[in-house]
């Protein structure tokens, strides 16, 4: 009994002694003053190969590792392209079918090809990697490994030697060829094969070569691509069919970042893929960071690239940037953070708790924690709660370059068609769906009622009353207000459905909404949709289905109403207006026009607008297109999502840039302030342990005293 009690007492005292201020630190051994950013991920990135990666959780890593020729300016709005590895932003030159040069203002029908010549900077070098390692004789150390030799290599760090080399134009051409590889199945191959000269033919050739030698690696250097060629060591040329001014935006995406042939040879060796040694797991780039640890069941770590070519923090911001202290680091060498640690957090509650403890530098706001973090002012503006403000936490909001809408199948005999009665039917339904209310109930205010297909921040979008949709909204006292339900009822009656019934037969108007949504949250939203149409005495029947069946219905035009969304690939109105372009109808063409909308006048204007440069003339064309599509109402324009994020006071240079994916290099951390706040917020609560120790002493002391008396008597 005495011995057991002494052990328990020792444990209690040890716990008290061991409770330092960092007792719950999830990063034991990390330096308190280290310039490290701490974040998290909830799902393993599936692809880190730039030819395959397209998801947002993947580009969070690939954007820091790979460098396409162009990037978006960190501060400027509207979004502006600037050089990254390129010396300048390339301007296309145009040629006709005979190869003759055309002027910049040549009509689109005369342009057979747009030629982009891109010159990259010299002196750019790749990260350290064993694929570049050479021996004393200049031979590659790790390009001829046997299956046995590679079997023991589980991590890149298992290779003793690494090397680097200079970036050359050939690396960019090599990557463009990789988009056509049948073994990679790049998600943009189909689209790019419509634009890059010869890419589709290369894909066919590579597919035949792969089928003829299924076990052999494809050496892309043995295959020519007509539309991408090396001019000299630092210059390459891309030829685009016709005029496609939006192509320049693709040059800011990792799809067009360089991949060295040495990396493909290295990873193609026997046994490498079995140990997850592939470009999908271990990328190779020239960016400011490289991946030093990829353990998707625990954490992923980015570290400063010692060979990074260098770049300076921008100094050309506006007054708002200056007020937000976003120009304090102007001219400083990038990156400003040495390392970024991403830990696996599958659940939002542990992530939130660690953020409040200071162990994550930034956080999103889930529905569970929204009320704890944000409140709305009397004018509807989001503000931090006192609890967050007292911690020095900052709120960052931004309208996303995205759109959600409810689509009408324009081929449907009831809701489709361009007749005036069908237009009024869809306008009435658009008014009835009160998305201001939806945003308040289901999104915690994280959205903006949509006035058309073009989100804020993109050319063509007009803010405020000047940009309202006059068929659904009106201006009252200088504010945008939804039109009354009485207006919707009048339009419905004019469409032939007074009080929600067919004027000729008296039958109720029944609409069908197809959806993949399921679960309690989805039921609440679907019930809300039914209630919106109840206001018009219109019945809504929800037809739930699985993903494949839903896609099949959309593809065949068997849906009547459906919900859909779109995220911008690049900041140009063409990337949203093409969703309504007739020749892109889902039925027959398989395009992205899921509503099967086909208005000849809209189509004509789209074909003109897509090739125009931004300016007053293009805006005028867009305004006309918006009037047409608002009147025809093939969509109920629902909302533009709005992102809400939190950052601690020690995190600097945070400005939402919804197009750029390489913004980690601009972040700055104040490690001293972070450490001070962690100590303040994580002081160990010792009184329970002290109470336990006191209780143990009270229990043990009499036994110890009795034992000592017994020992004296027997002595």
Concise structural overview:
With 715 residues, the chain is of the alpha+beta class.
Please tell me about this protein's structure.
It is globular and about 110 Å long. Helix 1 (2-18) runs antiparallel to helix 23, helix 13 packs antiparallel against helix 15 and helix 20 (600-609) packs antiparallel against helix 21. The chain is built from 23 helices and 27 strands. The protein is α+β, with helices and mostly antiparallel strands. Mean pLDDT is 92; it is low at 15-19. The strands form eight sheets. Strands 14, 17, 18, 19, 22, 23, 24 and 25 form an eight-stranded mixed sheet that branches. Strands 5-4-6-8-7 form a five-stranded antiparallel sheet, with helices on one face.
